[in-house]
């Protein structure tokens, strides 16, 4: 007997919704490292920050590696057994992180946490999609909830680390996982989702090659600046290993009867343009590197105050979610919604360009962080919807892992690494320019404190230069979005011919069937950050 729900029939519907929200509140922000307490882990373990950046990327890579096999995992095990075991494993991994001082354990556990939590997340989308119905409205509500939740979890990770210790937040998350496992063992039904399928069709070697490709790439992005990029043998070897792993992965997919990945969807027009827009979104999200350098290095914020800045994005995220719900409810074309998101990101860059001064007050953050929050929320919702819209389910499931890694890891990782290097390079250039006005007569023991002001101004100048280039690129992105057709029929007679031939009705029927069957799988990958 099959049951597509999660809980026993005797559990009231409001209680089921509450349990799902509790699961989301614990599982979605769960990770191997938390941005809010990385500095405290670094100071306690004595390891380099780059290891924990690598671990942060590993969580996303684990989620991407799980996506192509998540449906088979969903249909292989009973819901209660699977959820209980997964929550216990996530709790154990979180507890492991609270007891170790080895940074490589953080990297490995982050990879495993990403893989396991994607299987948990999948289970939550069928009932939520059934409640909301409209996929676009679901995106608007769910993305807003998840993005707000991530900002709050980062803040509390910093606060708990200050008030107690960095281990305490991991222990809290572990206890929450154990409690939820116990609760769901009592409330979930003991039935299969659908026809039981075997696991031996999963190509574990392909998963290993996928993980190898992007973990080596993450090593390059994380340690590139620290090891001076191509002047380091480790960076060169890791780059070669990433390239060879991807080549072997591609060759293996072409020879398998049931490939782990599919590259068919990357020939679709909307996927190609969607990937480009996701890459441009990474260009704006990567500015967190510059923002942190300015907030901590120039303004002297502590980690908790710096974490509070992310809370200022919440009003913008909520506004984006409300507008998205209205937009999809009225079935308005996505073009101007996407345009508004990139405009908000461009506005954030412009405000930061003109506002980065030594006299910057905390209240000056309200406008740029609101714009950043709105831009992030609207683009995460709309561009992801557009990229994966109207795709064949089989092809989409076999490639969505790559799309997820592209959006959350590659795009952000590339620009974060580039900004980090240019931030350092432009500081050196700025100090060299300022050195023209310094000599032994003007710099004495009485005014040696001027060196600090020179350094701070060098950081500001470097940040302004990068934001200036981002503004120029952002203008080009706005022009691109404005002239892009977003799937609109260029000639009316094409649609008329489709109606006469009956193809339009067939297309609508096939679209309804795809939405009814497995839309929650596609939507599950969206909120990964």
TrEMBL record:
<feature type="transmembrane region" description="Helical">
    <location>
        <begin position="169"/>
        <end position="187"/>
    </location>
</feature>
<dbReference type="GO" id="GO:0022857">
    <property type="term" value="F:transmembrane transporter activity"/>
</dbReference>
<feature type="transmembrane region" description="Helical">
    <location>
        <begin position="366"/>
        <end position="386"/>
    </location>
</feature>
<feature type="transmembrane region" description="Helical">
    <location>
        <begin position="336"/>
        <end position="354"/>
    </location>
</feature>
<feature type="transmembrane region" description="Helical">
    <location>
        <begin position="199"/>
        <end position="223"/>
    </location>
</feature>
<feature type="transmembrane region" description="Helical">
    <location>
        <begin position="138"/>
        <end position="157"/>
    </location>
</feature>
<feature type="transmembrane region" description="Helical">
    <location>
        <begin position="235"/>
        <end position="254"/>
    </location>
</feature>
<feature type="transmembrane region" description="Helical">
    <location>
        <begin position="54"/>
        <end position="71"/>
    </location>
</feature>
<feature type="transmembrane region" description="Helical">
    <location>
        <begin position="83"/>
        <end position="98"/>
    </location>
</feature>
<dbReference type="GO" id="GO:0005886">
    <property type="term" value="C:plasma membrane"/>
</dbReference>
<keyword id="KW-1133">Transmembrane helix</keyword>
<dbReference type="InterPro" id="IPR036259">
    <property type="entry name" value="MFS_trans_sf"/>
</dbReference>
<feature type="transmembrane region" description="Helical">
    <location>
        <begin position="17"/>
        <end position="42"/>
    </location>
</feature>
<feature type="transmembrane region" description="Helical">
    <location>
        <begin position="398"/>
        <end position="422"/>
    </location>
</feature>
<feature type="transmembrane region" description="Helical">
    <location>
        <begin position="466"/>
        <end position="483"/>
    </location>
</feature>
<protein>
    <recommendedName>
        <fullName>MFS transporter</fullName>
    </recommendedName>
</protein>
<keyword id="KW-0472">Membrane</keyword>
<feature type="transmembrane region" description="Helical">
    <location>
        <begin position="311"/>
        <end position="329"/>
    </location>
</feature>
<feature type="transmembrane region" description="Helical">
    <location>
        <begin position="275"/>
        <end position="299"/>
    </location>
</feature>
<keyword id="KW-0812">Transmembrane</keyword>
């Amino acid at each position: 007997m099959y049951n597509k729900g999660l809980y026993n029939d005797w559990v009231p519907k409001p209680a089921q919704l509450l349990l799902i929200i509790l699961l989301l509140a614990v599982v979605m922000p769960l990770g191997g490292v938390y941005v809010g307490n990385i500095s405290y882990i670094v100071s306690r373990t004595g390891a380099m920050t780059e290891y924990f950046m690598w671990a942060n990327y590993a969580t996303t890579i684990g989620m991407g590696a799980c996506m192509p096999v998540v449906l088979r995992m969903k249909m292989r095990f009973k819901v209660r057994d699977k959820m209980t075991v997964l929550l216990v494993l996530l709790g154990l991994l979180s507890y492991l992180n609270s007891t170790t001082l080895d940074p490589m354990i953080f990297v490995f556990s982050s990879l495993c946490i990403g893989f396991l939590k994607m299987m948990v997340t999948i289970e939550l989308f069928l009932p939520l999609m059934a409640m909301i119905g409209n996929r676009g409205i679901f995106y608007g509500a769910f993305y807003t909830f998840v993005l707000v939740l991530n900002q709050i979890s980062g803040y509390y990770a910093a606060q708990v680390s200050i008030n107690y210790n960095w281990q305490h937040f991991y222990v809290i998350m572990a206890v929450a996982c154990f409690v939820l496992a116990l609760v769901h063992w009592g409330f979930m039904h003991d039935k299969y989702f659908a026809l039981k399928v075997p696991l031996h069709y999963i190509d574990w070697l392909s998963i290993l090659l996928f993980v190898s490709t992007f973990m080596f790439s993450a090593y390059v992005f994380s340690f590139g600046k620290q090891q001076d990029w191509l002047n380091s043998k480790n960076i060169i070897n890791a780059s070669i290993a990433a390239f060879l792993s991807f080549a072997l992965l591609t060759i293996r997919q072409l020879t398998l009867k049931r490939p782990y990945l599919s590259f068919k969807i990357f020939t679709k027009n909307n996927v190609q343009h969607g990937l480009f827009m996701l890459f441009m979104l990474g260009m704006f999200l990567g500015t967190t590197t510059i923002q942190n350098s300015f907030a901590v290095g120039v303004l002297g914020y502590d980690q908790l105050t710096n974490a509070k800045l992310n809370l200022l994005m919440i009003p913008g995220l909520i506004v984006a979610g409300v507008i998205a719900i209205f937009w999809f409810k009225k079935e308005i074309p996505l073009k101007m919604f996407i345009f508004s998101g990139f405009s908000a990101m461009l506005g954030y860059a412009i405000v930061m360009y003109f506002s980065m001064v030594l006299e910057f007050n905390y209240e000056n953050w309200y406008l740029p962080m609101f714009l950043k929050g709105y831009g992030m929320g609207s683009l995460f919702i709309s561009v992801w919807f557009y990229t994966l819209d109207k795709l064949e389910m089989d092809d989409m499931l076999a490639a969505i892992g790559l799309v997820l890694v592209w959006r959350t890891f590659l795009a952000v990782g590339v620009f974060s690494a580039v900004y980090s290097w240019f931030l350092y390079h432009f500081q050196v250039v700025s100090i060299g320019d300022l050195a023209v006005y310094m000599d032994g007569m003007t710099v004495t023991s009485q005014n040696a404190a001027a060196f600090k002001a020179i350094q701070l101004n060098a950081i500001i100048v470097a940040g302004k230069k990068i934001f200036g280039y981002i503004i120029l690129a952002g203008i080009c992105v706005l022009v691109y979005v404005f002239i892009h057709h977003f799937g609109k029929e260029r000639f009316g007679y094409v649609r008329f011919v489709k109606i006469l031939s009956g193809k339009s009705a067939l297309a609508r029927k096939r679209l309804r069937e795809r939405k009814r069957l497995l839309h929650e799988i596609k939507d599950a990958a969206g909120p990964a950050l």
